[in-house]
Design a protein that fits this description.
alpha/beta; four-stranded mixed sheet; 47% helix; globular
Length: 472
């Protein structure tokens, strides 16, 4: 196969970033506000001063890198069927989490999320084969005093059979969520072998590990369940304004997280990720739709592969406030970069307004883009069947290939859109002269009205309700 390729960092350049991060950890150190993590580090050669300032010797970091597995397989709910393979250059897409605002495809209005909106979004993700995992997408405004993270997870568990990447507040949330999944999947041992969930959490840039975030990190390690503990350095705000400086800082935060994680349980699954953004000095927003953001995504993918770890990425997002041409441009650019860079677990499909709004229409549009760009990145075959020399010889000068058996055999391999139009003007007018935005709305609404996800057994739903009531 001849495939499109994208490469930015050589092995020597990855080594340069690695050594810079080791120097940050040796010289500057990180603040750790979790007593168990400090206790684990006191058993090593790490130097702890001023109560919680930890400086890491290079050997400790490199030991941790040797322990972590290079592959994670996320499975369908309650089964051992692998849906998302986090290894090599395999790319898996899914939505983002926890937006306060919902762009309603029925009215076109932006408003606060409700529980019904979250369910609608989950159904859209469940219906689209281009998306391999689900995230919560919105924070319901109608839950009152109920714990939003546990209820979001229960909704995802009920309304999709795809793997779930979840967020939560603290260790207690992790325990409740793990109990829900265990109720579906046959217990914790089965869940470890066939994980159907992955936690997304963050250290605090620059160079701080909070008590709650570190508590979640250690819990997931203890249970040998997968986690991405991804910092979000913002160049010019919480990180140096240069990409190289932001990469080195974020990498140091990831490596210090990994060291604590592997000290808790060597071999526990860990995904490498760093959400390096930059601050727009005109608006003070953390930018998604920018070439610098995509350069950072390539570098993060290459650093993860340099370490032999699965990687975390971003795509299908925009700074636009609505599903317009800007959003479509940003989504297409980011999807192509994610596929060419080979990020393994790519989230934020459907994000608008720099992560404040989720749009189901953006999710549906990006799924079409993923389908197109996957076909592009698969490249072309150069084998004898594809070169078709015998067919060319048989047809000869002036002939046609329309009636050739070779054409009948292979034409279905050419990509076909489900949303984009290839009609000429007469046909397009005859079908109502619908612009892409109209077709997109219709497709999204048809999914919301027609898709029925695979349901949970009543006994499992009752167990989940019991866990929610007991632990809320």
């Amino acid at each position: 196969m001849a495939v499109p390729q994208l490469r930015m960092l050589s092995r020597e350049q990855c080594e340069t970033i690695h050594l810079a991060s080791l120097e940050i950890l040796r010289r500057t150190g990180v603040r750790i506000y979790h007593e168990e993590a400090l206790h684990l580090l006191r058993q090593t050669d790490a130097v702890i001063t001023d109560e919680n300032l930890v400086r890491f010797p290079p050997g400790l970091v490199e030991w941790a890198l040797e322990q972590a597995p290079s592959r994670i397989a996320l499975c369908r709910r309650g089964s051992d069927e692998v849906v998302a393979r986090l290894e090599g250059r395999e790319v898996n897409f899914g939505p983002g989490s926890d937006c306060p605002n919902y762009l309603d495809p029925r009215t076109g209005k932006r408003r606060p999320f409700t529980t019904a909106d979250v369910i609608d979004c989950i159904h859209v993700v469940d219906a689209l084969p281009e998306l391999e995992f689900c995230m919560s997408m919105g924070i319901p405004s109608d839950l009152g005093t109920a714990n939003p993270y546990r209820h979001q997870f229960a909704l995802m568990l009920e309304h999709t059979s795809k793997p779930i990447v979840f967020v939560c507040d603290d260790r207690a949330d992790c325990e409740a969520i793990a109990a829900m999944v265990s109720a579906v999947g046959g217990g914790m041992e089965s869940l470890r072998l066939n994980p159907t969930l992955l936690l997304y959490s963050e250290p605090s840039t620059p160079l701080k590990h909070s008590e709650t975030a570190t508590g979640k990190l250690l819990y997931m390690a203890e249970q040998a369940l997968p986690i991405v503990h991804s910092p979000a350095p913002m160049m010019g705000g919480t990180a140096p304004v240069t990409l190289a400086g932001g990469l080195a800082l974020g990498n140091a935060e990831v490596l210090s997280s990994l060291a604590m994680h592997q000290l808790k349980r060597p071999g526990a699954p860990f995904v490498y990720g760093s959400g390096l953004h930059h601050m727009d000095m005109k608006t003070t927003i953390s930018v998604y739709g920018a070439p610098e953001f995509q350069l950072a995504r390539i570098a993060v993918a290459e650093m993860g592969r340099f370490y032999g770890l699965p990687t975390w990425g971003y795509a299908g997002h925009s700074d636009s406030c609505t599903m317009d041409e800007q959003a479509a441009t940003d989504a297409t650019f980011s999807v192509l970069v994610a596929l060419l860079a080979g990020n393994n677990l790519v989230h934020d499909v459907g994000y608008l307004e720099a992560g404040l709004t989720t749009s189901p229409e953006m999710v549906v549009f990006t799924a079409e883009t993923i389908s197109m760009m996957r076909h592009f990145t698969q490249g072309i075959s150069l084998d004898a069947e594809s070169l078709a020399l015998d067919v060319i010889h048989k047809v000869g000068p002036g002939g046609d290939f329309l009636t050739a058996r070779h054409t009948l055999k292979h034409f279905r391999a050419l990509w076909q859109p489900t949303l984009l139009s290839r009609q000429r003007a007469d046909g397009w007018v005859a079908r109502g002269s619908k612009r892409l935005g109209q077709r997109l709305q219709e497709r999204t609404l048809s999914i919301l009205e027609e898709h029925e996800p695979e349901s949970l057994p009543d006994s499992v739903r009752e167990e989940i309700a019991y866990i929610l009531e007991k632990r809320t």
